[in-house]
């Protein structure tokens, strides 16, 4: 009898392990879907074709966030941040090709591109942070980082699809830096500094629904048609007119990894500007589905544990004392 | 079988002196890291947030330290009491491997003064795979030393303490079988959120299954590896007959691992990538050759009782598992435009941790009853015939 019971429990233990494996193999019925954009989400729309590369936003961002200019050359006569870093939240990068004589042209052209946090709708950084130092505001959707909570494990650095979180490797007591959409300014009723100073309206702030509609308007208007462009905010009356640009017919951030709250428009394909083509399913949702499948309600681990306890008790009794 | 006994002998030997020196170098470098920051000692960057310490000290070293786990499953769950003499040395090596892995994480995380946030519920982010891994490894370090406590008590404890520890031993044993099952699989899952940043030859939702099965294999391989070394170094009777039987398990598990990995690749239509991925192809193929080699070497019973072949197969298995993890974390993972190769400082710190592990192991086997002096092998023939003999004379 003991034997059959033992076999039964051994089976149970093995079953628990097998269940865990199976969960990882086949996606459980209750797959965690991509998170949805909060209804009152706010964000930024960056239009590369409007950007003149003046970097007013970079300076304004420094001022708004108490960051000194960053130097990468010996002579400190120019802010030479080449990318976002532990000292820099946003940069404007330059794309060039061939003779680089024509703006917003893929061949023989040049174009600018903003780099800063995209405030993903379903952010990997929030999903992976072990100590909840990365959070997404349920109302506005702003993705924030709280240094007081952070342990500096850099899992977010590894997992972010866009390489956004920047860790201060050069400090004994380092922090992590990323754009928080100037939430401290928004709390005072102001808009993000980069949108406020932008002279051409290349960076616009506003509700996501309005930003998306504005992006659609631009990409669906034929190139060359005189079009109004607002500055600072999407509903602003401060507008200027110019011929509509020849846009890539896609707004980056509408589908990528489940959507982002910074939308990008460009005349040059996004892959060339450092924004890779990404699928729609968020990586966070996929990883969480697998973990949930294995650990959901802690059922499989507990079943496994019960089996292990029984077998270990039985078998230590059998030969534990004889040694 | 006869009792385990302290090995005794001198503490100052060439090995202990060298390992002690390497440990001191590591200590100095760690101090330097604390004063000047991670960047002063490592080549870590915001393109490669995880470096050698995560790849080796966490992924590889804890898999090497799966000997205690793998043997506990065999002896206590599948009731193969004959392997009991191998449990203690394996447990000790595991206790060191995991503890040092845990300690090295504390130097790796940038804001270590906040590390305790990991263990308090109001900071916990339950979707974080790292949280699961960290808590599990932390708990397992404690469990390993509890599992080892009876050994210490045998030398220094009172009879009452010994009896009590033996009686409740099944609890830490069961926990000690559960926790590695959880975190060794989750260590694989750790890279799933990185998505496209991990090369498709490695990125798969089956990472937890592959990581766990290869870790258990590495556990058995390390038992064979250590068993062979200890036999050699301390001129102890050969354990080839027992190790040979364990090696059979490795073959089975490896066939499972390889089947899962290749069927998964085929199913996902990624087989073409095996040959067309440049440097990734090179690492992938090298890894797989190392995985297949032990299967071939250990396929026949004759080879399984040959100590030399056993040793080679175990080493191949360990290298395979190690490269699988190294490739996953440092090579398959990569951000376009970034490069990483560990600095001398990073390497010396990892070497120092390994040295400390060896040093601690030596001190412990000399001090505590870890190694058992069973089946004295009088001539080499008895070793060859041992498998059948062992089965009948056990106990
Ligand atoms: S871009 Fe990166 S840091 Fe920003 S929300 Fe998305 S995952 Fe997080
Ligand atoms: S580095 Fe900080 S914010 Fe990023 S995952 Fe680790 S604890 Fe969270
Ligand atoms: S929103 Fe604020 S913090 Fe973010 S890039 Fe713009 S100015 Fe910088």
What does the model show?
- The complex is a heterodimer of chains A (323) and B (395).
- Chain A has 323 residues and is an alpha+beta fold.
- Chain A has helices at residues 2-25, 56-65, 124-128, 155-159, 183-187, 193-197, 208-220, 283-295, 299-319; strands spanning 42-47, 91-96, 102-103, 109-115, 134-136, 143-145, 166-167, 176-177, 203-207, 226-230, 239-243, 262-265.
- Chain B is an all-alpha fold and 395 residues long.
- Chain B folds into 2 domains: 1-190 and 341-369, no CATH class; 196-339, no CATH class.
- Chain B is globular.
- Chains A and B meet through helix 1, helix 3, helix 4, strand 7 and helix 8 of A and helix 1, helix 2, helix 4, helix 6 and helix 8 of B.
- Residues 117-120, 123-125, 143, 160, 162, 164-165, 178 of chain A line the site of one iron/sulfur cluster (SF4).
- The helicity of chain B comes to over 70%
N to C succession of SSEs of chain A: HEHEEEHEEHEEHHEHEEEHH
Strand residue content of chain B = under 5%
Tally of separate helices of chain B = 16
* CATH fold call of the largest domain in chain A: Alpha-Beta Plaits
Uncertain runs of chain A:
1-6
Helix content of chain A: 25-40%
Overview in brief:
The complex is a heterodimer of chains A (323) and B (395). By secondary structure, chain A is α+β, with helices and mostly antiparallel strands.
What does the secondary structure layout of this molecule look like, with pairings?
The complex is a heterodimer of chains A (323) and B (395).
Chain A: H1 2-25, E1 42-47, H2 56-65, E2 91-96, E3 102-103, E4 109-115, H3 124-128, E5 134-136, E6 143-145, H4 155-159, E7 166-167, E8 176-177, H5 183-187, H6 193-197, E9 203-207, H7 208-220, E10 226-230, E11 239-243, E12 262-265, H8 283-295, H9 299-319
Parallel strand pairs in A: 1-12, 3-4
Antiparallel strand pairs in A: 1-9, 2-4, 5-6, 7-8, 10-11
Chain B: H1 14-36, H2 38-41, H3 52-64, H4 67-77, H5 84-108, H6 129-156, H7 159-167, H8 170-189, H9 207-233, H10 240-267, H11 273-276, H12 279-297, H13 301-304, H14 307-332, H15 344-367, H16 380-393
Helix pairs in contact in B: 1-15, 3-5, 3-14, 3-15, 4-5, 4-8, 4-9, 5-6, 5-15, 6-7, 6-8, 8-9, 9-10, 9-14, 10-12, 10-16, 12-14
One iron/sulfur cluster binds at residues 128-131, 133-134, 145, 150-156, 165, 176 of chain A.
């Amino acid at each position: 009898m003991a034997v059959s019971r033992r076999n039964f429990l051994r089976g149970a233990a093995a079953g628990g392990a097998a269940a865990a494996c199976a969960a990882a193999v086949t996606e459980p019925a209750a797959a965690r879907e991509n998170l949805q954009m909060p209804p009152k989400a706010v964000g930024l729309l960056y239009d590369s074709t409007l950007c003149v590369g003046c970097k007013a936003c970079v300076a304004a961002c420094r001022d708004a966030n108490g960051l000194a200019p960053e130097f990468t050359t010996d002579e400190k006569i120019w802010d030479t941040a080449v990318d976002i870093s532990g000292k820099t939240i946003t940069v404007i990068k330059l794309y060039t090709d061939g003779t680089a004589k024509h703006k917003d042209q893929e061949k023989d052209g040049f174009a600018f591109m903003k780099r800063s946090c995209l405030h993903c709708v379903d952010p990997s950084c929030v999903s992976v942070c072990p100590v909840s130092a990365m959070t997404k505001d349920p109302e506005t959707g702003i993705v924030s980082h709280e240094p007081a909570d952070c342990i500096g494990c850099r899992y977010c650095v590894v997992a972010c699809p866009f390489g956004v979180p920047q860790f201060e490797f050069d400090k004994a007591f380092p922090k992590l830096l990323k754009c928080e959409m100037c939430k401290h300014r928004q709390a005072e009723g102001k808009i993000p500094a980069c949108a406020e100073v932008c002279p051409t309206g290349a960076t616009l702030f506003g509700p996501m629904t309005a930003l998306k509609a504005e992006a659609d308007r631009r990409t669906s208007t034929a190139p060359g048609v005189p079009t109004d462009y607002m500055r600072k905010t999407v509903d602003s009356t401060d507008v200027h007119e110019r011929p509509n640009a020849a846009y890539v017919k896609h707004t980056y951030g509408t589908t990528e990894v489940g959507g982002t709250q910074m939308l990008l428009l460009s005349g040059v394909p996004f892959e060339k500007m450092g924004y890779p083509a990404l699928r729609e399913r968020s990586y966070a949702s996929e990883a969480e589905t697998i973990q949930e499948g294995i650990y959901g309600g802690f059922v499989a681990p507990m079943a496994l544990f019960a089996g292990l306890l029984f077998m270990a008790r039985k078998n230590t009794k059998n030969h534990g004392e004889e040694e | 079988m006869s009792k385990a006994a302290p090995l005794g002998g001198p503490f100052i030997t060439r090995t202990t002196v060298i390992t002690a020196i390497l440990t001191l170098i590591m200590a100095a470098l760690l101090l330097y890291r604390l004063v000047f920051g991670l960047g002063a000692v490592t080549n870590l960057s915001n393109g490669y947030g995880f470096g050698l310490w995560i790849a080796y000290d966490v992924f590889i070293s804890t898999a090497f330290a799966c000997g205690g786990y793998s043997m506990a499953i065999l002896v206590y769950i599948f009731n193969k009491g004959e392997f009991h003499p191998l449990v203690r040395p394996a447990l000790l090596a595991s206790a060191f491997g995991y503890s040092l892995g845990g300690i090295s994480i504390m130097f790796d995380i940038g804001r270590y003064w906040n590390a305790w946030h990991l263990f308090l519920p109001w900071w916990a982010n339950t979707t974080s795979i790292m949280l699961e891994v960290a808590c599990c490894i932390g708990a397992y370090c404690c469990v390993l030393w509890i599992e080892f406590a009876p050994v210490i008590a045998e030398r220094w404890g009172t009879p009452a303490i010994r009896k009590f520890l033996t009686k409740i031993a099944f609890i830490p044993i069961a926990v000690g079988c559960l926790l590695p099952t959880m975190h060794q699989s989750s260590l694989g899952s750790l890279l799933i959120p990185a998505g496209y940043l991990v090369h498709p030859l490695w990125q798969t939702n089956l990472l937890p299954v592959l990581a766990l099965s290869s870790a258990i294999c590495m556990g058995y391989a390390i038992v064979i590896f250590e068993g062979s070394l200890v036999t050699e170094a301390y001129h102890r009777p050969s354990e080839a007959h027992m190790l040979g039987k364990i090696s059979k398990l490795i073959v089975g598990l490896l066939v499972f691992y390889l089947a899962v990995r290749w069927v998964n690749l085929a199913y996902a239509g990624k087989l073409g990538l095996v040959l067309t991925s440049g440097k990734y192809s090179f690492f992938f193929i090298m890894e797989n050759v190392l995985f297949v080699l032990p299967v071939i070497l250990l396929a026949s019973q004759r080879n399984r009782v040959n100590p030399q072949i056993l040793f080679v197969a175990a080493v191949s298995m360990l290298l395979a598992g190690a490269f699988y993890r190294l490739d996953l974390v440092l090579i398959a993972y990569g951000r376009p435009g970034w490069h990483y190769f560990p600095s001398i400082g990073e390497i010396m710190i990892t070497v120092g941790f390994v040295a400390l592990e060896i040093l601690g192991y030596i001190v412990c086997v000399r001090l505590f009853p870890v190694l058992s002096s069973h089946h004295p092998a009088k001539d080499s023939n008895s070793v060859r015939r041992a498998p059948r003999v062992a089965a009948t004379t056990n106990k």
